[in-house]
Every structure is written in structure tokens, then in C-alpha cells.
Amino acid sequence: MKALDEPPYLTVGTDVSAKYRGAFCEAKIKTAKRLVKVKVTFRHDSSTLEVQDDHIKGPLKVGTVVEVRNPDGTYQEAVINKLTDASWYTVVFDDGDEKTLRRSSLCLKGERHFAESETLDQLPLTNPEHFGTPVIGKKTNRGRRSNHIPEEESSSSSSDEDEDDRKQTDELLGKVVCVETISTDKKKNICFPGLVVCSNCSDEVAVKKDNILVRSFKDGKFSSIPRKDVREISESSPKPDAALKQGKN
Fold it and tell me: Does domain 37-83 have CATH number 2.30.30.140?
């Protein structure tokens, strides 16, 4: 929803927050193809009409009395009911990338935005044998708005032990692994291939200390697994198919 003091359209050189890969990043408008749709109500007969802003004589503001140009060149008084910015804007991000966006994907700097979170469903979880590199989303510092606390500040309150645990988790994050553990009732061995994901990827599974969160390739479920029961799958490791067969026995 637009703010009351927001302009009907944006001009070249305006600093904005532009939507990029689900998050709003700092950018500047490079070019603009202006198109503002204006819905008006004529004062003489209360009929309504939607025209482009170049047919309007007067300020573009809801509730303002303006003059609307007719096809024959004459003008009639009307009241603006609604403004819709249908312009196309080309913006430049801090790193030089350019993108052409609609007005709905731009916000004036200083407004508050909520980034769309990336989910595990966006990661390729099929064909684990064909993984060549860790599946980790790219990080960017493109002015993305967040409440993230810099590592320098948060690390001061962390113990050396917690730091080591975090490093071990980071090393496995995004890796395809083989899980060999014992069921909670200690009656059978469990073995399956899976993907190590962030501990906050699942709201239903609590990750205990010295455990990591793994999503199984077998059934897609999340599990909290002790680090000692997880080993990375390499070329010399048994194929995931063999692990699946072993887990079924």
C-alpha cells in the first residue's frame, strides 16, 4: 500500500529499494518509461473514466480537482479517485547490475520491507550422486535490510567450544552425507543418505547440542543427527543406493 506522501511516479536518479531475488536491495533509478493511470469522476455527470496522466491538467493527487482533456481537445473538470503507476523503471544496484522492474517492485528508501525467506524446497534434492559442489545459497551484501548482528559483536559472547561446534557445522552445511545411527528405541540401525541444512530450516525438529539437521533423500524428512553419526559422501564412499538398501534391512 502506498504511503500518503508518496509521489505518483518516480524520477531518474531517485534512490530506491528494489526487489532482487526475494529481497529488497539498495539501487538507483537509471531510466524510466513513465505511464501513470488516473481514474477520475467527472463533476457534471458523476461518470468515471481512466486516462493517462498526459490527459490531466493539474496536480496528480487523489481528491484533487483537475481538468481532463477530451478527444476533441476540450477540457472538463473531474476529481481524481485513484492513481496507478504502471511505469517501467531500470535500476542500477550497488555492484553495477541492472534490472527493469515495475513500480510494485520498488520502494522509496527508508520504508520497511520484509524479505521473502528462501526455503529448502528451492534446493535440488534429487540425484545426490551428481552433486559437485555444496548446495549453499549465495550471500550478497547488496544493502539488504535485516536485523542480522555482525559476527564481531556476537562472537564476543560465545565460548571457544561453541565456536568450534559452529565451524564443524559450517564445514558440513550443504554437503551430501551418509547417516549411520541408532533409532531412539535402540532396536535397529538406521542408514540413509541426506543433505546437511541450516538448523533453522525446520520448525518441527529441535536440533540438540552436538547435533546437525539433515534432510533425508529417502523420505524428505528432517532429522537431528549426532555429528559422530554423519560422514560426508565422497567418490570413494559407498553409493547412496547401497546405503538405502542397507537402511531397509
Answer: yes
